[in-house]
Amino acid sequence: MFSFQRTSAIVLRQLYLMQGSPARVLPLFAWVAIDMVTWGFITKYLNAVSGSGFNFVPSLLGAVLLWDFFIRVMQGVTTTFFEDVWSRNFLNVFATPLSISEYVSGLVLSSIATSSVGLVVMLVLATAVFGLSFFVYGVLLVPYLLVLFFFGIALGVIGCGIVLRLGPAAEWFIWPIPALISPLAGVFYPLSTLPAWMRFLSRLLPPSYVFESMRSIVLKRPGSPAPLFWGAALDVVFLLLASWFFRAIFHHAVRTGLIARYSAESLN
């Protein structure tokens, strides 16, 4: 039976780790702050030299904010999992009555907490320093943020499954994932810029629908709820795939004994 108390223990452990280590707290807001400042000044420079009257702040800085939010969500899941991998604590966790669904739910709640910090920092900097008004996007910003959030959760869980299957060194396959999919997501340019075969792949990614719709809103073009629907539908597919994948990898690791390499005793 699902227990929220056991799930919250995963979040509480992560909180204790952060309380005892400022090095774990700093990345929650430092990198997003650097991104906001860097891209903020780039947009101001483009506004100054373009002479077109087009405002680059909502189109470029808004895109950076949304993409960084997605990255923080994904890394919120994977980093919590990696803490157990780095400390060789994963086997100990599952020596308790904790179920897979409770553990993954704990990863998701940890991601909500950490990504919320980054989102607040980005919103404050983008609004107070660079004048990014989110009234440009309207209430549609919330559902589109949710599409990015659930896709980040799905990719994070898939990344955890990959590391669980291939071993601790496979974490280096996970960190570049956002950079690898960003060209297909159309974060900074319309999908029409891409060749046909890349556009096909883009249509399989929920973020592509988010950024295409956000550009239409900024350019005041007629909007449609269809992109939001397709993005949400793909999120459901990715979430189901991620749940199945992690569960299958976990059972494989238990059956074959691969899970033993995540035990502290394996270092001896």
Describe the structure.
With 268 residues, the chain is mainly alpha-helical. The protein has one domain. Helix content is 73%, strand content 0%. It is built from twelve helices and no strands. The longest helix is centred in the first third of the chain and has 31 residues, at 56-86. The protein is globular, with a radius of gyration of 20 Å. The two termini are 36 Å apart. The mean pLDDT is 86.
- How helical, in percent, are the residues? over 70%
**Secondary structure: number of strands:** 0
Integer average pLDDT? 86
Strand content: under 5%
| Largest pleated sheet | none
The helix-strand sequence is HHHHHHHHHHHH
Distance between the termini: 36 Å
Category from helices, strands and their pairing? mainly alpha
Radius of gyration: 20 Å
- How many domains make up the coordinates? 1
Tally the helices: what do you get? 12
Inertia-based shape: globular
Spans of at least 5 consecutive residues whose pLDDT stays below 50 are none
Keywords:
268 residues; mainly alpha; globular
Blueprint of the fold:
Blueprint (H helix, E strand, L loop, with lengths): L3 H16 L2 H4 L4 H21 L5 H31 L3 H4 L6 H29 L12 H26 L4 H4 L2 H9 L10 H7 L3 H13 L7 H31 L12
Brief digest:
The chain is an all-alpha fold and 268 residues long.
